[in-house]
Specification:
With about 375 residues, this protein is an alpha+beta fold. It has 9 helices and 16 strands. The longest helix is centred in the middle third of the chain and has 25 residues.
Length: about 375
């Protein structure tokens, strides 16, 4: 998420010995290597799609078995009082690094990553744009993930952070901007923090995201996201004026044509091929017409357009997981009508119906495409040129 400053320390402190005790229960087999193969990077999912050990972003988020075995970590998650998304323990091996990158996909555009260091040393440094900090054990931090950032572990010890993805309520952002510490200079005054201690008898409930992607992205969101990208492209003085104009026209045409499809089909299946053809055509034009456009501190504008809008605007794999509202178990008593008029029929709920249908896991990229083409999802509506 874009933030006014690169780093913010939040006014909380956590019990490091208790956190170390809880993560010590996990064996080497519990740590999953990074999905992009970053050397020395591994994680244990705590909240994930359907509570499974995956790296997915879309679908109902649920606690994993690892979180259920970690009562203090669960209390920490609940203490924020927020709707939580992907959360995990993230480990960085001695001498390893998180390579320089920016988080330009849809998931992170309106979510921050809350970092709570558990094991670390002064030799672990976090870089974001032109700032760097050491996040101390038991502290609480967020940062501007839209800008280029990296982490270096120049020590001989493992670094482990508890990392929580969330969008944040108004109360959360009041805390950030009114009570947190923005790192704007090397010598920033220390922050007064509240201690979040372990409560042995507490049984907290956590709230997790259930709807984090649209089957077909609404026009208003497509327009908002593309306008955000266009504004940043215009703000970068190094971008060629001709390419900015071409990007402006490309976006205007994409939004107009998306609106026409939405007015015809909304999320109905018969519109999926047209939506897919439009985004594929638009992406090809972007790569041909505006290849050199750059965001201010985040890299390629075309790559951001692909990850933030084009990839995210169709999620038809979720059509198999979305259920209609459950049947009501009671019916309103009909108003009496004259005997000469026919009574309206009332659909009774099935005797075997349950209040909440079981939600199936979304298909993988190798599963058959939900459109019925017979192709794998990654080769059909999940394919990006």
């Amino acid at each position: 998420m874009k933030l006014p400053h690169e780093f913010y320390q939040l006014p909380y402190r956590f019990d490091v010995p208790k956190l170390i005790e809880e993560i010590s229960q996990f064996t080497e087999d519990d740590w999953v290597t990074h999905h992009e193969g970053f050397q020395g990077n591994s994680a244990i999912p705590l909240i994930s799609v359907n509570g499974e050990f995956n790296n997915d972003f879309k679908g109902p988020m649920k606690p994993t078995a690892a979180l259920e075995k970690s009562p203090y970590i669960k209390q920490i998650l609940a203490s924020f009082g927020e709707v939580l998304s992907r959360s995990r323990l993230m480990r960085l091996a001695p001498g390893a690094q998180v390579p320089l990158h920016s988080d330009i996909n849809y998931h992170w555009y309106k979510r921050v990553r809350v970092h709570i260091p558990i094991t670390t040393t002064e030799q672990v440094q976090f870089y974001c744009h032109d700032k760097q900090v050491h996040m101390g054990a038991g502290e609480c931090w967020i940062f501007d993930s839209w800008k280029y950032h990296k982490v270096e572990n120049n020590s001989d010890q493992y670094r482990v952070h508890l990392v929580i993805d969330l969008a944040g309520s108004s109360a959360f952002w009041r805390t950030i901007f009114n009570h947190s510490r923005a790192i704007v200079a090397p010598q920033t005054p220390p922050l007064a923090c509240s201690s979040i201690d372990y409560q042995p008898e507490a049984q907290p409930e956590i709230i997790t995201e259930q709807y984090n992607a649209s089957i077909i992205m609404p026009v208003a969101e497509v327009e908002y996201l593309t306008n955000e990208l266009l504004a940043e492209v215009k703000h970068n003085p190094q971008n060629p004026a001709a390419e900015i104009d071409a990007f402006n026209l490309l976006i205007a045409e994409f939004v107009a044509d998306w609106r026409m499809l939405w007015l015809q089909f909304e999320c109905q299946q018969q519109g999926w091929p047209q939506y897919h053809a439009l985004r594929e055509h638009t992406m090809k034009k972007a790569m041909q017409q505006v290849p050199s456009l750059q965001l201010t501190h985040s890299g390629s504008a075309v790559k951001a357009f692909e990850q933030l809008v084009i990839v995210a605007c169709i999620n038809i794999e979720l059509s198999q997981t979305r259920q209609s509202p459950p049947h009501q178990t009671t019916q309103a008593k009909p108003r009496p009508t004259p005997q000469s008029q026919p009574q309206p029929s009332v659909m009774e709920p099935s005797a075997t119906a349950t209040p909440q249908q079981e939600i199936a896991a979304p298909p993988t990229r190798n599963s058959p495409c939900p459109c019925g083409s017979g192709k794998r999802y990654k080769a059909c509506h999940g394919k990006m040129s």
